[in-house]
Amino acid sequence: MIYFVLFGFTYILFMLSDRSKGILRGFFVLSGILLICLFAGARDIGIGTDTLVYGYSTYLSSMDRGLAEHVSALAASSAPLFNVYAWVSARLTGSFAGMLFFIQLGSFLPFYLAIRKASPDKTAVCVLIYMLLVFPFTMNALKQGIAVSLVFVAGCFAFRRRPVPFCVTLLIAVGFHLTAVVGILLYPLALLVRGTDDTTPLRRRTFMFVAIVVFICYAVVILFGEELVRMVAPLRGAYSYQLNAIGQGSVSIGNLLLFVAFAVVGGMCLEDKGKGLDRERSFLYILTVVGMAAYQFDVVAESLSRFAYYGVVFAPLFYRRMLGAQRRENYVFVVVLFVLIVLVFAYSVILMGHQAVYPYTSTILGI
User: To the nearest 10°, the Cα dihedral for 133, 148, 301, 82?
Assistant: First the structure.
């Protein structure tokens, strides 16, 4: 399977970068990033639903119009920063493949820089989990893929209580996709998790917060989901798809299993022996589990599950932190969780065709 070959080589390159220093480290990092972006850029036009729906038309508009006219013409369907970024990428490279390359770079690079800051010598595992959980989505949802990565960066700023970088990053994310506005909840969540020195209330708050948010989300979606879609869809032409897709979605069994697994195994790894509850792990746990639960938003309208990725993007760093938890008896469960992630990827992306990125074909690569 070409995706597993890609994931394997990517993991090896970033593992070598973690074990290297200086110029050699930079070489491995650059090689890993180029491999991911070249793979995405060289794909055929039909790989990824949105690549065909608006990706190619955005490229044609970029090549046929000046910047101001291009941004104005696509204002009803795409956020302004994405239109500018796509125009510059297309003009700079002169090819659709080049534009896709830079869009993938915009989706991956902010994420990588953030995990490099958060976990300097242990990025390989984060990248691998990202490739399994988030990469197929970024190959499909071009605009939102960049926004999701930037929301992850904003979340890292939020946990470190840096309000100005958080606000700036979140505004940029919204400039790429309006749905990134949900990231505004990250800062109050970070304050909630870090707001006490007593770990017992923190543990209680963590699990209560997850339970309450998941319950509220499901209640709102089940009771008012269709009405919300009908209310929001007319505000922007790009949301008409959700309006037409009401009632066409279904429960995702694979992602439901991931939700349960992350909730249970992740909950077991929140505390270190003799040190109490880890606050960063609690923050990442909440975001990951809520994101996994949001996969089921498709029961209202197909593609509403895309909101899930604003939480799921925190899963790679959370998984890395789970591996570092000082409770070795839980290690086997964390490994089993990885196996489940691989199986869900194979089932969802390869067997069920989610994100429309498999089978991968590339005229450029002769595949």
Answer: -130
Which of 322, 265, 306, 262 lies closest to 287 in space, CA to CA? 262
| Cα atoms found within 13 Å of the Cα of residue 239, Cβ hemisphere only | 14
Nearest-angstrom CA–CA distance, 204 and 334: 22
Tens of pLDDT, residues 211-269: 666 666 666 665 555 555 555 545 455 554 544 444 555 567 888 889 889 988 888 87
Instruction: Report the predicted TM-score, pTM, of the whole model to 2 decimal places.
Output: 0.89
Distant-in-sequence, close-in-space partners of 146: CB < 8 Å, separation ≥ 6: 82, 85, 103, 106, 107, 110, 173, 176, 177
Closest C-alpha to 113, from 169, 163, 161: 169
pLDDT at 278: 76
Q: Are β-strands 271-272 and 276-277 bridged in parallel, bridged antiparallel, or unpaired? A: antiparallel
- The pair phi, psi for residue 72, each rounded to 5°, is -65, -40
What is the token pair recorded at 54? Answer: 């608006």
Per-residue pLDDT at 197: 53
Name the 3-class secondary structure at 272.
Answer: strand
119 touches 126 (CB < 8 A): yes
Amino acid code (one letter) for 259: F
Residue 5 burial class via C-beta count within 10 angstroms: exposed 0-12, middle 13-18, buried 19 and up: exposed
